Amino acid sequence: MQSRQNEGDEKKMAEKITVALGQMSCRVGDKKHNIDVMKKKIKQAKRIKADIIAFPELCLTGYVVRDRAYEFAEPVPNGPSVHEIEKIAKNEEMHIIFGMIERSSKAVAVLHNTAVLIGPDGFIGKYQKMHLPTHSVFEEKRYFRLGYQAPVFETDAGKIGMIICYDVYFPEITRLLSLKGTKLIVCISASPSVRRGFFETLTAARAMENNVFLAFVNLAGIEDGLQFWGGSRIIAPSGSVISQAKYDADDFIFAAIDYSDINRVQAWVPTMRDLRPEIFTSLRKEAENL
Amino acid sequence: MLLTKEALRLDLPLTATRLKRFIKDYVEKTRAKGIVVALSGGVDSSTAAALSALAIGGNKVLALSMPEKETCNALDTKHIRKLARKFRFTLERIDITNILQALYESIPAFDPSDVVSKGNIKARTRMICTYYYANLHNRIVVGPSDKSETMMGYFTKWGDVAADIAPLMDLYKTQVRQLAAHIGIPIEITAKPSTPQLWPEQLAEDELGIKYELLDLVLLGLENFMSAEDIATQLNLRLKLVEGVKTRWLSTEHKRRTPLTTKIEYRTVGKDFRLPYTPP
């Protein structure tokens, strides 16, 4: 049944799309400035006829906001920033993914680190970060509630799943997205320089092991001494990097991707065919007894 | 983890790029007109001054040489001048002898035999002069502190450590030496024995009781959550020496913090009042 649904879905979506990534540095707490930066990159994406553009994690406010997270948070989708990005998406006929601090509509002190997906017709969906780093320089659990769902969104630009930064260390979530039929996983990130090597390895691995395209978009710039390394990239299901942004500086990159390439790679390294679901049961059992 | 010289090796071009980027970014974000550095002629302050000049241009960097009669030596003066010429920053010399003398004479309890307390006056006097220039010219102060001395608490509280930014604070002394050589600091400076210059003949390694090459590996082990026993075994050191380093590191934490307070109210500075620095 699941398989038939996927076949039907594939008929609806575009086979070839152009993905753009807006690698940016943020002015901490200055949403107007940050949206202006995004707007310029969206116009750039429009000029090269991109179907979708993605921006980094928490790019609306910057990453290192600490206690000001409560002040900067907004509801999703019924907040002013989402409405503003909706207008831009409509004008430019663009799919846009960006990161922001979401305030729960039920409890004002409940915040999420959220990736928002907006299409030309408005808000499509959101993903709330499931793995919140709270170690080393990271203190996300201090501020954010964990997300519990990994949704997949059917759009004119394909079947899209989103993850955020540290999520990439956990193969379960990208596996889940790929089992739900995702063809393009967008990983929005705020990764500081010392972690560059890990992310370069893990992003390629997540694309390869799931036979999907993966677009990784990172912050650039420096916030409170944390240097974000940029290096955004679009990775093919084979693991090869199709397009890569500069390190340590703002940049704009794009690549045309053909979803039918997935079929070819799936035959070459058939990870989905060889998947062993019974391992998941053991995995859960062992993880619950750490 | 293997505690070898290799573990302290840096990607030098990348490190230099990141530090220059950090310095330049901070100056731009704070809209400062430049940088002031207190320059002793040692490897740390020389590297801080040189990196500052490489980051924003020597014409926007003012290095202050602040000798005083008890510790002043011709070799340091020569090194400082050579460095200023090479990295094209402005150099100003302030002889602080008279300021110190006035302080010694004005403090009723002043005891010249207490060389540490007296030496700290020198470091704090240099800090006062450095911040005077920073205020006067709307510049930021770039500090020279490295990670070895910061972890050991081997500095004067509110003295040489006082700065707006300390680009070298995450690099051990031997790593600063590597970086210094990479950016072109002359070998006579990088190879010179370290001294805080608080009294004549003072040498850092004598006071710390261990060579930096070993100290840095001990500290690297502690940084990586290794036990004192494992560190001592690997480095073939006496356990007592490693434990002494660990004790000194932990007991000087008060020097690396904002002043401790006790929680009374809703949000407390230095505890749960966590804010990003956002210049106007």
Q: How many strand elements of chain B?
A: 4
Q: Tell me the number of helical segments of chain A per DSSP (H or I, 4 or more residues long).
A: 9
Determine the CATH topology of the domain at 5-199 in chain B.
Answer: Rossmann fold
What series of H and E elements makes up the topology of chain A?
HEHEHHEEEHEEHEHEEEEEEHH
Say what the CATH topology of chain A is: Nitrilase/N-carbamoyl-D-aminoacid amidohydrolase
Which residues of chain A form runs of ≥5 with pLDDT under 50?
A: 1-11
Q: What is the correct CATH architecture of the domain at 5-199 in chain B?
A: 3-Layer(aba) Sandwich
Q: Which stretches of chain B are poorly predicted, pLDDT < 50 over at least 5 residues?
A: none
Give the count of helical stretches of chain B. 12
Helix-strand category of chain B: mainly alpha
> Helicity of chain A, in percent?
25-40%
The H-level CATH homologous superfamily of chain A, spelled out, is Carbon-nitrogen hydrolase
CATH superfamily of the domain at 5-199 in chain B: HUPs
How does the helix and strand content of chain A classify structurally? alpha/beta
Detailed description of the structure:
The complex is a heterodimer of chains A (290) and B (280). Chain A is of the alpha/beta class. Chain A has nine helices and 14 strands. Chain A has a single domain (2-287), classed as 4-Layer Sandwich (Nitrilase/N-carbamoyl-D-aminoacid amidohydrolase), CATH 3.60.110. In chain A, helix 7 links the parallel strand 8 and strand 9 (213-218). The radius of gyration of chain A is 18 Å and the shape is globular. Residues 1-11 of chain A have low confidence and may be disordered. Chain B has 280 residues and is mainly alpha-helical. Helix content of chain B is 50%, strand content 5%. Chain B has twelve helices and four strands, in the order H-E-H-E-H-E-H-H-E-H-H-H-H-H-H-H. In chain B, strand 1, helix 2 (43-56) and strand 2 (61-65) form a beta-alpha-beta unit. In chain B, helix 10 runs antiparallel to helix 11 (228-235). At the A-B interface, strand 10 of A face helix 1 of B.
